[in-house]
Amino acid sequence: MTPTQPCRLRVAIIDDSADVRTAIRNLLNAAPDMTCAGVYAGIVPALSGLINAPADLALVDLRMPEIDGSTGLPMLRSLFPDTQLLVLTMFQEDDDIFRALANGANGYLLKSDPPESLLAGIRDVVSGGAPMSPAIARRVVQTFQRPLQSPDNPVLTPRELAILTLLRAGRGYKGTAADLSISVDTVRSHIRSIYQKLRVHSLIEALAKTRP
């Protein structure tokens, strides 16, 4: 009688590069606790394919044709709430990072990371963690530590900075309020304070004036 084989983690790959899909699929299938559940060249085929081939986790690239990864994250989250979403990309600009995290990514890894880091990140996510490449984690920390000031502008508070960061990522007033566990009226109150400090009259001006 053979012992029961442990269930392997089912990992889907969403990336427009055939070479990347092949390399990651081979890496996953060689791991003792993982298997490739499917490969998709974009968000649209993934939305239909994952219905028939469920995955515990999906690796999502960001810059893809038709629908970019960040835009697709909420779609995937809505249709497959039990599937963890891990960004795997080559892009590490602040806007990419915060938009992806605000749109539902459970972690953010770079394609330049060693293969062992990708496997460790997958295991971390399904265990409840939120892995980030060291370079990404540093940028996140630096963004929240960076004083938004100039000779003419006073320093914004950490809460004001967090609100601007989420709004820059496209969360909107309601999404920002939900993420920070505050009311929409409180968000508006902070925005008024930001306008006064920065001497601006619109959110666009505030974001432009405090762009990292």
Give the secondary structure arrangement, pairings included:
Elements: E1 9-14, H1 18-30, E2 34-40, H2 43-52, E3 57-60, H3 69-79, E4 84-89, H4 94-102, E5 107-110, H5 115-126, H6 134-145, H7 158-168, H8 172-180, H9 184-198, H10 203-209
Parallel strand pairs: 1-2, 1-3, 3-4, 4-5
Helix pairs in contact: 2-3, 3-4, 7-8, 7-9, 8-9
Report what the structure shows.
This protein is an alpha/beta fold and 212 residues long. It folds into two domains: 131 residues, Response regulator (Rossmann fold); 63 residues, Winged helix-like DNA-binding domain superfamily/Winged helix DNA-binding domain (Arc Repressor Mutant, subunit A, Orthogonal Bundle), CATH 1.10.10. It contains ten helices and five strands. Strands 2-1-3-4-5 form a five-stranded parallel sheet, sandwiched between helices. α2 runs parallel beside α3, α3 runs parallel beside α4 and α7 crosses α9. The longest helix is centred in the C-terminal third of the chain and has 15 residues.
Helix content: 40-55%
Poorly predicted ranges (pLDDT <50, ≥5 residues)? none
Name of the CATH superfamily of the largest domain = Response regulator
Strand count, sense and barrel status of the largest sheet are: 5 strands, parallel
Query: Mind telling me the C-alpha Rg?
Result: 19 Å
Kindly provide the name of the CATH class of the largest domain: Alpha Beta
Features:
10 helices, 212 residues, Arc Repressor Mutant, subunit A, Rossmann fold, alpha/beta
